[in-house]
Specification:
By secondary structure, this protein is an alpha/beta fold. It has 3 helices and 8 strands, in the order αββββββββαα. Strand 5 and strand 6 (79-81) form a beta hairpin. It is globular.
C-alpha cells in the first residue's frame, strides 16, 4: 500500500533530502542508504538506520479498525509511538540501528489526518481526544 514514492517523501519530510551517505573508499565514491524501511531488519546490511514496518499499510489492515493506534501509547525517546514497538537495538556489529517504532506509518497517519477519512465508523472524536491527552505534557 505504501509505494516507494510515498515512502521516500515521508523520509525526506522527516530528515531532509540527505538520506544517502557518500564516502570515499580506495579512491572511489560509493553511496550507502542511510535509512531503510522494512519488515525484515535482520536482512539489512547496507543501511545505517532501519525503521521496522508495522502492519499499518497491509491490505488487510489499512482502512479497518485494526489500523488504529492502541492506547495508551508507548514512548520511544520521548516520542509517542502510534505503530510498532518503543524499542531499538544495534545490529551488524554496531553498524546498523534498528528502530522498531514505525515512524513512517505514524507520520503518514498524522499528516494525512487518517482518522478523519471516514474509512471506519467508530468513535473517532473520542479516540483523537484520548490521543491528544496522552501526548501532551
Amino acid at each position: 500500500m505504501l509505494n516507494n514514492r510515498v515512502r521516500r517523501y515521508l523520509i525526506n519530510f522527516l530528515l531532509g533530502k540527505h538520506t544517502h551517505l557518500e564516502s570515499a573508499m580506495r579512491g572511489r565514491l560509493y553511496q550507502k542508504e542511510v535509512i531503510i524501511y522494512t519488515d525484515k531488519p535482520e536482512e539489512v546490511k547496507q543501511a545505517g538506520i532501519v525503521i521496522c514496518r508495522s502492519n499499518f499499510f497491509s491490505l488487510d489492515v489499512y482502512g479497518t479498525k485494526a489500523s488504529e493506534p492502541q492506547l495508551p501509547l508507548q514512548e520511544w525517546r520521548g516520542i509517542p509511538v502510534l505503530f510498532g514497538e518503543a524499542r531499538e537495538e544495534w545490529i551488524n556489529e554496531g553498524e546498523t540501528l534498528v528502530i522498531y517504532a514505525d515512524l513512517l506509518a505514524s507520520t503518514f497517519y498524522l499528516l494525512s489526518r487518517y482518522e478523519e477519512s471516514g474509512l471506519y465508523p467508530f468513535g473517532q472524536a473520542l479516540f483523537i481526544a484520548q490521543l491528544l491527552m496522552n501526548t501532551r505534557r
